[in-house]
Amino acid sequence: MANCETCLRRTMRTLCFNQKFPLDRELMKGLLQCIKAGEASSKASIGAYLGINPYKIEGLRGWFCKLGLGSFNRQGYYLSEFGALAAEYDPDLVRPGTLWLLHYFLVSEHDERAEVWYRCFNEFVFPGKSFTPEELREYVERVLPEQPENRDAVKEDAKALVKTYTNTNGLGELAMLSKQPQRRFRAALAKLPENLIAAYALFDTWQRRYPGLDTIRLSQIADEPEFLGRVFVATPSQVRDMVLHLQAVGLLSFADTQHEPVTRRYHEPVVTLLQRYYAPADGASGT
C-alpha cells in the first residue's frame, strides 16, 4: 500500500493547481534558491524566505511540480534532475533552453500532469490556430472523462494558460501565443528550440511512449501527443528541420523514403543531453 507521501504526490491536482496565481519566474527562482539553500522545510519557512503569504505558496509549489522542477512531500522539497541543473547553471531561469524545458514539462505527462495545458497543446491547438480562452474551456470540458467538482476550474486554467504564454515573467518570451483582435490568440512556433533541447524532448517522449523501438516514423514525431510537432506547435516542415538538425549532429538518422523512418542513434540516459546543454565540457557550445 502506498505511503502517505506517495499518495500526497499522486493526488496533486491536475486542475487549478496554481490557486489562480500566474506563473512568476521571479518567485520560482526564489523557491529554487530556497530549496538549494536547505531552507524549504515548511510553507512558513518558504513564505519567510520569499516574503509571501502561505496561501500563495500553494500555487507556487503547484507550478514547481508541473514545470518539472521537482517534487515535495511531508519531509521536504526535492529538485528533479532538470531542476537541479537549472538551479545550478541558470538560477535566474532566463536561458531559452530553460524556458523550452519548463514548457515541455508543463504540457507533457510525467509524474505530474497539468490537464488544461496537456489538452491544449497535445489535442486542441495546431500551427496557426486562432482561439479564445472560452473555446479552449469548452473543448477541455467536453473531453474530460469526469467533470470537476469546481465548476470554474477549467475556465480559470484556460485563462491562466493564456497568461502563461503572453506574460514575459511567464513563458511569453517563447512567443508561442500571439494576441489577435477580439480577444483571440494564435498558436505558432516562432523559433526552433536549440538542438539539445529538441533532442531531450524527443528522446524523453520516445522512451516513455515507445521504449522498445529504435525506429519510428517522422509523421509520428509530427502528429502524436507529446512529440515535437504537438508540444512545440511545429509545422511538418519545422519538425523535419529539427530532425535534420539532430541528424547533422549524429543523434539520429532519417531516411527520406516512403515511410520516412527516423532511427535513434543516441542511447545514453536522456538527462545527459541536459548536462551537455547546461555544463558543456571544454567550453563547447551548449546548443
UniProtKB/TrEMBL annotation:
Residues 56-258 form the DUF4007 domain. InterPro entries: DUF4007. Pfam families: DUF4007. This is DUF4007 domain-containing protein. It comes from Candidatus Viridilinea mediisalina.
